[in-house]
Amino acid sequence: MKRKTKLIHGGISTDPATGAVSFPIYQVSTYKQEGVGGHKGYEYSRTGNPTRFALEELIKDLEGGEAGFAFGSGMAAMTAVMMLFNSGDHVILTDDVYGGSFRVMTKVLNRLGIDSTFVDTSNLEAIISAIKPNTKAIHLETPTNPLLKITDIEQVAKLAKEHGLLTIVDNTFSTPYWQNPIELGADIVLHSATKYLGGHSDVVAGLAVVNSKKLAEDLHFVQNSTGGVLGPQDSWLLIRGIKTLGIRMEETEKNTAAIVDFLQGHPAVKKVYYPGLETHPNHSIAKKQVRGFGGMVSFDVGSAENADNLLSKIHYFTLAESLGAVESLISVPARMTHASIPIERRAELGITDGLVRISVGLEDVEDLIDDLKQALE
Ligand SMILES: *Cc1c(COP(=O)(O)O)cnc(C)c1O
């Protein structure tokens, strides 16, 4: 099955009970048993729900794993995966990881004895020097946010195997349409399905896919024990969103290429960050690892004042956090998503006050470029 076909026919695409082509929303908490333990595979919806299972089977197929799991948010998925570890264990993560992932590791899981170190994972030496006797996993985000740094998943997964560590990849930005970490050697894939997979700014959800029966058993145990599951209505919305992921990503790619081209030629733009650019420091890894560079672009307009001017004049890019939706979004990371990072650390990472991040949507690209043009004047 090719990729667009799999988005539509992967998982459990029709309801075996009725033939319904849109998988039904099983809005139910419990299931009638014919005798004690005599059930049809479902006992209680925290443990399993048919609509959620249809989504879990779909993401499993899309990522090429052993089992999929749906959670109430990306952070719930991440937390459940970290609950595979024990007090005293250590995890290495990408330094410019999503702010919420940084927060849960350093303000919540640290209290339970799960220790973390953040390194530039695009530098293999930096990972090697962070490995400790109690290290259990390497968590990668690639591309990163907002500077779109790329880590070589295959190389890191190989290193992780040599040291007996799990490789976990947050695949939110690329989606399984453009990047398949399990094929590259990863053990666990995470998604904030709130972004491209849902794609319509209407659902908060998280997904995890694992590559072995043992991890599937362990993660199902955590999911059922801690209970952060996704409800049937939101599971259905995600299945619906995923059906059009292919055409959305293809169209986003075209729009983004045109916008990057425009931004690069504009005198008010000091620097453009996009992994599809040959001048991007990790472009060669990106080319090897992804089929598309995605719809996230960051660019520097020089100062907070210039960024504010741009924001005050822009029409079609909505000022908002989040990304990956049909509508184009714009944000200023230093004062929004990354405001909690100390200013010196932001400077080290290159997240300047004039850095603007856009998530390119599906409007006509001529409108988007005209809009940027008038707002940059
Ligand atoms: C949004 C996001 C998350 C968190 O997901 P939620 O659904 O908001 O909980 C994790 N990782 C990345 C890369 C994200 O963009």
How is this structure best described in words?
The strands form two sheets. A seven-stranded mixed β-sheet has the order 1-7-6-5-4-2-3, sandwiched between helices. It has a five-stranded mixed β-sheet with strand order 8-9-12-11-10. Helix 2 packs parallel to helix 9 (232-243) and helix 12 packs across helix 14. With 377 residues, it is α/β, with parallel strands linked by helices. It folds into two domains: 3-243, Aspartate Aminotransferase, domain 2; 246-376, Aspartate Aminotransferase, domain 1, CATH 3.90.1150.10. It is built from 14 helices and twelve strands. 38% of the residues lie in helices and 15% in strands. The longest helix has 20 residues, at 245-264. The structure holds pyridoxal-5'-phosphate (PLP). Pyridoxal-5'-phosphate is lined by residues 73-75, 98, 100-101, 141, 145, 170, 172, 192, 194-195, 204, 206. Pyridoxal-5'-phosphate (PLP) binds at residues 73-75, 98, 100-101, 141, 145, 170, 172, 192, 194-195, 204, 206. Belongs to the trans-sulfuration enzymes family.
